[in-house]
């Protein structure tokens, strides 16, 4: 594995926000930028060459989730994929009903379009979660109605790493009219996802979460689902997503996917689980009073660890770690500039819990090392001891 150098002894533990591009991905993209500039929609030699790269990438990605090649639609990332699945499904199926089910801890790319739909007369049920960040299947079954047209439930949560019962939900919906969409932006590349086995109709992903390029993702859209293109313009992506395809980035995305074999997924989950224990054991040994937000179950996203450092505000801890050259997060990077409390932790523990204002998220990646973890432990310990004085 080629190493990525951060320089200046910096430690990056915010991989749930974004990951550094893999060297293999950069090499692949550079080759395509230098040698393949044709428009994949053009019929001449340059266009046909670009089109071949596009379809080869589509095949690689489709195979990773047991989908058909023509079920993969390239997008600008998770946000566009989520918005497309939700808004276009609502528009296309409103004659069948106007009820949608989701959870209280979805990413804002799901929650905000749903809130907008509510202003248009749609009814949305936001399922609660327990202290592990997981919904109850009994609650889900109770919420499901004859007029439910869409269920959008994330595969794994970006703040606490909880893994939703996707397979069971898919089985329940197999004979229901509702289409099943899952935001798999954090889970893709780590968990075993099979869209056929799990009865998934639509799935959103983002390349930059798996050491690929930013501003690129895909929407898996099961064959037979009919709704209009979210973006209007050209006939790219079989008229399902207008806009000239970014061939170098798509080739880079496929390279990132090809690196993550089933064995590599297993290896990463085990490696990240060991990092979690190293963090928790190290802090405990140094007298830092911490608790895990969520759970440590084996089927969770192991790269995400959200911890409550009792008595130390999120802002103070985040600032001190940043000054020490260590990058972590106070929650989702998409709301980093917001002073609002985490809607995920609020849903799990209630708005009065001290966890809301005293928790941090660290997230591991391909290039995280034990030395990085040890530097984190040392800096947290130093900060806590200084504050106690």
UniProtKB/TrEMBL annotation:
Keywords for this protein: Iron, Iron-sulfur, Metal-binding, Pyridoxal phosphate, Transferase
Keyword Cell division: no
Aminotransferase class V domain boundaries: 11-376
Name of protein: Cysteine desulfurase
UniProt cross-references to Pfam families, sorted A to Z: Aminotran_5 (PF00266)
InterPro entries: Aminotrans_V_dom, Cysteine_dSase, PyrdxlP-dep_Trfase, PyrdxlP-dep_Trfase_major, PyrdxlP-dep_Trfase_small
Reaction catalysed by this enzyme: (sulfur carrier)-H + L-cysteine = (sulfur carrier)-SH + L-alanine
PANTHER family: CYSTEINE DESULFURASE, CYSTEINE DESULFURYLASE FAMILY MEMBER
A molecular-function term among this protein's GO annotations: cysteine desulfurase activity
Residue ranges that the Swiss-Prot or TrEMBL entry lists as coiled coil: none
Named cofactor requirement(s): pyridoxal 5'-phosphate
Family, per entry: Belongs to the class-V pyridoxal-phosphate-dependent aminotransferase family. NifS/IscS subfamily.
Record carries keyword Transferase: yes
